[in-house]
Design a protein that fits this description.
Layout lengths: L4 H9 L3 H7 L8 E2 L16 E4 L4 E4 L6 E3 H9 L3 H12 L32 H13 L2 E2 L5 H7 L4 H6 L3 E2 L3 H12 L1 H7 L15 E6 L5 E7 L9 E3 L18 E7 L1 H8 L5 E4 L16 E6 L4 H16 L4 E3 L17 H4 L5
Helix pairs in contact: 3-4, 8-9
Length: 356
C-alpha cells in the first residue's frame, strides 16, 4: 500500500533537508555545497552552486536546470532510486513519526539540526553478502521458455537465442521463492539488500521478468525487474542500491570498436538480437560519471528514447564522454551502416517493430 499525499507531505515537513543531504554524504556549509554533477560546470563547480532552503525544504543548482526539488527528489538523485524507494529510505533512516504528534507535521527549523529521531544504522552489507543473496535469488527463478514472459518477449521481437545468452529469468514460484529466501538468509538481510519490502514481502509480485546485470564473468550483483501486465503503471523496478555497471558489461572489453548505448534492457536486447554490440542504462538519468572508463577505446552511438527526457539525458552523457575524449554520436552517423531516425516518442524497440 502506497503512502497517501497527506502522508508524503507530513514526511517532507518533518525532515531537515540539510540533515538529509549530509546523511547522503554531501558536505553542506552555510546552506551550500558542490553540485553532484561537477562535470557539467566550468572548473568542476569550484565555487559551490547547489543551495538548500531549510524554510521551503527545497534544493537547487544554479547551473543544472534538472538538479532541483524536495527532500525526496534529493534521495532519488543521489541514491539512483525510484520515488517509492526514496520514501522507504527516508522512513528507515529517520523515523519521522517519532518527532511529531499524530496528524500534526513538525515545524521546519532554520537550524541544520534534524527535527527527527534517528535509529542506529546497521552495519554495511559486504559485496560478498550482497552477491550471495542476489545469485541465490536468480538461481531460484525459471528460464522464460515456458512462462508468460515468452510471448511478451516475442511480441517485442526478442527471441530465444538472446534471452538464453543474457540469462533472462521469470519469477514463477513467488510464494515458494519467498519462503526459501527467508529460510536461507533471514528477513533483515533480505530487506537490507532490497529484495524484500518493509512489510516483509518479496518485492516483485507484479514485476516477474528479471534482467540480470552480468559482469565480465557472467555473475550478477544487480538486476532489473519488469512487469508484463498492461495495467501496471510502473513498468520497471530496479533492485535497491547502487547500479554497479551498465547492462551487458561484456561488450565493454576495452577493444577498439563501436558500441550502442541504450535506455533500458529491452532496447539493449533489441540490438543484441541484431548482432549489434549494445549496452544499457536502467533509466534516462542513470548514467554515472565513473562509468566513462568502461568505454575506453570505444566509439559510442547514444540511442536513448526520442523524447524530451531522452534528449536531456543524451546531452549529459555526451558531455561526460567528450570530457574524456571518447568519440560519440547520437542515433548513428554516416560512418555507420544506418542512422536511426526514430519518431517522437519512440524507443529502439519501437523502431525495430516491437509491440507493447
Amino acid at each position: 500500500m502506497q503512502d497517501s499525499h497527506d502522508e508524503i507531505e507530513q514526511l517532507k515537513a518533518s525532515l531537515s533537508i540539510t540533515t538529509v543531504a549530509e546523511k547522503l554524504g554531501l558536505n553542506v556549509v552555510k546552506g551550500r555545497c558542490h553540485c553532484f554533477y561537477p562535470m557539467r560546470h566550468a572548473h568542476g563547480d569550484r565555487t559551490p552552486s547547489l543551495s538548500f532552503s531549510e524554510e521551503r525544504g527545497l534544493f537547487r543548482c544554479f547551473v543544472c536546470p534538472d538538479v532541483r526539488g524536495d527532500v525526496i527528489t534529493l534521495v532519488e538523485m543521489l541514491r539512483d532510486c525510484s520515488f517509492n524507494e526514496a520514501v522507504r529510505w527516508l522512513k528507515d533512516e529517520f523515523r519521522p513519526w517519532m518527532a511529531v504528534e499524530q496528524g500534526t507535521p513538525a515545524p521546519r527549523s532554520n537550524s541544520t539540526q534534524s527535527a527527527v529521531v534517528e535509529r542506529p544504522k546497521p552495519p554495511e552489507i559486504s559485496e560478498l553478502q550482497r552477491m550471495k543473496v542476489v545469485l541465490s535469488f536468480l538461481k531460484k527463478l525459471d528460464p522464460v521458455d515456458e512462462t508468460p514472459a515468452k510471448n511478451y518477449l516475442i511480441k517485442r521481437r526478442i527471441f530465444k537465442p538472446v534471452w538464453d545468452k543474457m540469462r533472462l529469468r521469470y519469477l514463477t514460484r513467488y510464494e515458494e521463492v519467498s519462503l526459501e529466501l527467508v529460510k536461507e538468509f533471514g528477513l533483515e538481510l533480505l530487506q537490507r539488500v532490497g529484495l524484500f519490502n518493509e512489510k516483509g514481502n518479496l518485492r516483485y509480485f507484479k514485476h516477474r521478468l528479471i534482467f540480470p546485470y552480468l559482469d565480465s564473468e557472467y555473475r550478477s550483483m544487480y538486476f532489473q525487474a519488469r512487469t508484463i501486465e498492461r495495467d501496471v503503471k510502473q513498468k520497471e523496478m530496479n533492485l535497491a542500491g547502487k547500479v554497479p555497471y551498465p547492462y551487458n558489461l561484456q561488450v565493454l572489453d576495452g577493444k577498439p570498436g563501436w558500441v550502442y548505448l541504450c535506455e533500458g534492457a529491452i532496447d539493449t536486447l533489441t540490438l543484441v538480437g541484431r548482432s549489434m554490440p549494445a549496452v544499457g542504462i536502467p533509466g534516462v538519468n542513470s548514467f554515472k560519471a565513473e562509468w566513462v572508463s568502461y568505454f575506453k577505446n570505444k566509439n559510442v552511438v547514444i540511442c536513448l528514447d526520442q523524447d524530451e527526457a531522452g534528449r536531456n539525458g543524451t546531452k549529459v552523457i555526451q558531455e561526460l564522454l567528450n570530457a574524456s575524449e571518447i568519440k560519440n554520436t547520437v542515433n548513428g552517423s554516416l560512418l555507420l551502416p544506418e542512422r536511426f531516425r526514430m519518431k517522437e516518442g519512440e524507443d529502439m524497440n519501437d523502431y525495430f517493430g516491437g509491440k507493447h
